[in-house]
C-alpha cells in the first residue's frame, strides 16, 4: 500500500515525541526516516524504524545527546557523538564539513561514539544540495570475513560519494559487501537465488544461494580481496580520524552502537564543472545496453525517479510494518 | 633473474638521460620505476619502462614540462601537468597536499593534463612516509563497460588509500576492474583460468577464461554494479576538481595521455592512533584462515615482504625485457 509522505512523517514524529525527543529533533529524525522510504530505501526507512525505537528504549541511542567538539586542527575537526541519534549527528557533521569547505575549499569532520546513520546517501544528498562534493563513510559491526578468512572481522562500512548536478545529483551509496544481510534475507524469504554470487557456501564455494551464504556467514566483499582491503582502510580512517571505536570494539561491545564516521566536503570550482559532469554521464550512457531497450543509469538516477513517484502516488510501505509503527 | 636495485635504477637513468631528461628528473623517474619493480609491481616497473620511453619519443610525455598552478581556494589547489612525466607530477602533487595538510589538517590537490602515474601506490607510500593519511585516484582511458552495458565507457580508475604505521604502512592500491588487462593477458599467456570470475564471455556469461573476456571486452568492475558506479564518480571527482579531461575525452583522444588526478593528504591527530591501527590489524588477522596454515594479510603487507626480499636478494626481472631496456 502507499501512504502520503507527510502522513508517514507525522506518524514517525508522534512516536519519537513519546520517546523524549524534542520537537525539532523528532521532526528532523522523522523527516529522514520518511525520506529514506520515499527514496525507496525501505531497509533504512519505515522497515528500520521499529529497531531504532527499540535502540532508544534500550538506551543505545540517547535522544537528547548533542555532539561535542573534542579536537581538531584547521579544516579537520573531531567530534564526540555522545551516542545521540546517528542521523542527527551525521547531518550535523556534514553541515560542519560544508562550512569548513566554504571557508577553505575542503573540510573533514570525524565523529566517534555516534550511532547508525540509517541511509548513508542522506548525507551525500545533503552535501550535493549545498553545491558541494560530499564523501562520507562509517564503520559497522563485523559482518564480513577478511579475504582468506572465514570469521567475520570486517564491517561492510558503507561509502558515499556525491557530486552536485543541476538535473539530479550523482550519489553513490554502497556498502562494501556485495549484498547486505537484509538483501540476503529478502531473497531467502522469497525462495530465490541471488542474481550474482554474493558469498560462499559452507563448502567454500562461490554461491548465489542466500540460505547457504547466511549459514556460512561468509558474505562476499565487493571485488573479493579488493573490497576486503577497502573495508579495512575505511575502518582505519574512521577510527583514526575520530579517535573512536574500530569495528573490533564495536563488535565486542554487543549491539551496534558507538560507531565512528568521517564526513568530507569539497567545493567544486571552475567554469567547466557543469559541462564536464554532463559529458561523463552522456558518455557512460552511450554504451550499448546488454539487453535491448534497456538503459545505463548513473548512481542516484533511480533514486530520483523513485522519489518523484513516491511524491506523486504516495510512499510504498510494507503494510505489516506500517501497522506495527502505528501501534508503537 | 635478479639484479641489484641500484643497477636497475642506473640503467633506467641512463636511458632517460638520453631522452632529454634533466639529471634530477631522470634520477627521480628511474628511482620510481626501480622501486615499482623492487616492490613486485612489475607491470608498472621494468615491464612498463619501454612503453614509457616510446611515449616520450612520441611526444605524449614531455620530459622537461613542469606543473603550473591554475587555481585553487584555501586547502584546495588546481594544477596543470603540462603533459610532464606522470610520476613526477604525481609526486609533486602529493607533496603539495602534504604541505597543505601540515598547515590546515587536510589538503587536496587536483591536476589536469598529466600522464600515467605508473603504480598509484607510490604516492600512498609517499604520504604515509610523511606521517600522513594519503588518498589519491586517477582517471584512465575507457577499458570497462558501465553496468548494464557492453561497450567500454569507464576507466578502471585506480584508487589508493594509505595509513601510516610504524611497523609497515597500510597501503591499499586497487584498480576498479577486478583484473587489469595486463593480468588477463598474463593468465592467457600461461593458458590458465582466472582464480575468480573476471568478466563476461561473448555470450554474456560470467567467466574465468581470460581469452573469452579479452574477446568480449567486458571486463568486470569490482562488485559488479557497485564498481561501475565507483569508477564513474572517481572520474567525476578527478575531472571536476582538476577541470581536466574525463575518461570520455581521454579515450577519444587516442593514446592514454592528459589524464586527471586528485591527491588528498590528512594529518592524523590523537594519542590513540598507533594502538587503534594495531587493534584493527590484529582483529582482522584473528579470523580463522580458509586454508590451514594460511594467514590474513593487510593491504601493503606483502609489498613490504617483497621489498625486503628484493633488497636482500636482488630485484626479479623478466630477462627479455631487461635485455630490451639495456638496448634502448
Which features does this protein show?
homodimer; 328 residues; alpha+beta; Hypothetical Oxidoreductase Yiak, Chain: A, domain 1; Ribosomal Protein S8, Chain: A, domain 1; Wheat Germ Agglutinin (Isolectin 2), domain 1; 3 domains; 7-stranded mixed β-sheet; two-stranded antiparallel sheet; 43% helix; globular
Give the topology, please.
Two copies of one chain form a homodimer.
Chain A: E1 2-3, H1 5-17, H2 23-38, H3 49-57, E2 68-73, E3 76-80, H4 86-104, E4 106-114, H5 121-129, E5 133-138, E6 159-163, E7 170-174, H6 181-190, E8 199-200, E9 206-207, H7 210-216, H8 225-242, H9 247-252, E10 259-266, H10 273-285, H11 301-313, E11 315-316, H12 319-326
Parallel strand pairs in A: 3-4
Antiparallel strand pairs in A: 1-11, 2-3, 4-10, 5-6, 5-10, 6-7, 8-9
Molecular shape of chain A: globular
Oligomer: homodimer
The name of the CATH architecture of the largest domain in chain A is 2-Layer Sandwich
Question: Element order, helices and strands of chain A?
Answer: EHHHEEHEHEEEHEEHHHEHHEH
Largest interface: A-B, 86 and 86 residues
Structural class of chain A: alpha+beta
Strand content of chain A: 15-25%
Q: How many domains of chain A?
A: 3
> Can you summarize the main beta sheet of chain A?
7 strands, mixed
Q: Low-confidence spans of chain A: pLDDT under 50, at least 5 residues? A: none
Tally of helical segments of chain A? 12
Strand order of the largest sheet of chain A: 2-3-4-10-5-6-7
Helix content of chain A: 40-55%
Radius of gyration of chain A: 20 Å
Can you identify the CATH superfamily of the largest domain in chain A?
Malate/L-lactate/L-sulpholactate dehydrogenase, NADPH binding domain
CATH topology of the largest domain in chain A, anyone?
Ribosomal Protein S8, Chain: A, domain 1
Mean pLDDT of chain A: 96
Supply the CATH class of the largest domain in chain A. Alpha Beta
Strand count of chain A = 11
Distance between the amino and carboxyl termini of chain A: 19 Å
Amino acid at each position: 500500500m502507499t501512504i502520503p509522505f507527510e502522513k508517514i512523517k507525522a506518524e514517525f514524529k508522534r512516536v519519537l515525541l513519546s520517546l523524549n525527543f524534542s520537537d525539532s529533533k523528532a521532526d528532523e529524525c522523522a523527516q529522514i526516516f520518511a525520506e529514506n522510504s520515499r527514496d525507496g530505501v525501505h531497509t533504512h526507512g519505515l522497515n528500520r524504524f521499529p529497531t531504532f525505537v527499540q535502540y532508544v528504549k534500550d538506551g543505545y541511542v540517547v535522544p537528547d545527546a548533542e555532539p561535542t567538539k573534542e579536537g581538531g586542527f584547521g579544516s579537520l575537526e573531531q567530534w564526540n557523538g555522545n551516542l545521540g541519534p546517528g542521523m542527527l549527528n551525521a547531518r550535523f557533521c556534514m553541515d560542519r564539513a560544508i562550512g569548513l569547505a566554504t571557508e577553505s575549499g575542503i573540510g573533514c569532520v570525524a565523529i566517534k561514539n555516534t550511532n547508525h546513520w540509517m541511509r548513508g546517501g542522506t548525507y551525500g544528498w545533503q552535501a550535493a544540495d549545498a553545491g558541494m562534493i560530499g564523501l562520507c563513510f562509517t564503520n559497522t559491526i563485523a559482518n564480513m570475513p577478511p579475504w582468506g578468512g572465514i570469521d567475520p572481522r570486517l564491517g561492510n562500512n558503507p561509502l558515499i560519494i556525491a557530486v552536485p548536478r543541476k538535473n539530479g545529483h550523482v550519489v553513490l551509496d554502497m556498502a562494501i559487501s556485495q549484498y547486505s544481510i537484509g538483501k540476503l534475507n529478502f531473497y531467502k524469504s522469497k525462495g530465490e537465488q541471488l542474481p550474482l554470487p554474493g558469498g560462499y557456501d559452507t563448502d567454500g564455494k562461490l554461491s548465489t544461494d542466500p540460505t547457504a551464504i547466511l549459514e556460512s556467514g561468509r558474505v562476499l566483499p565487493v571485488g573479493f580481496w579488493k573490497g576486503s582491503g577497502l573495508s579495512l582502510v575505511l575502518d582505519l580512517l574512521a577510527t583514526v580520524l575520530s579517535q573512536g571505536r574500530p569495528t573490533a570494539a564495536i563488535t565486542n561491545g554487543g549491539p551496534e552502537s558507538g560507531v565512528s564516521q568521517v564526513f568530507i566536503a569539497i567545493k567544486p570550482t571552475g567554469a567547466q564543472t557543469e559541462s564536464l559532469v554532463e559529458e561523463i554521464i552522456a558518455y557512460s550512457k552511450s554504451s550499448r545496453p546488454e539487453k535491448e531497450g534497456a538503459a545505463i543509469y548513473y548512481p542516484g538516477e533511480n533514486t530520483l525517479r523513485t522519489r518523484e513517484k513516491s511524491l506523486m502516488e504516495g510512499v510504498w510501505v510494507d503494510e505489516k510494518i506500517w501497522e506495527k509503527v502505528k501501534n508503537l
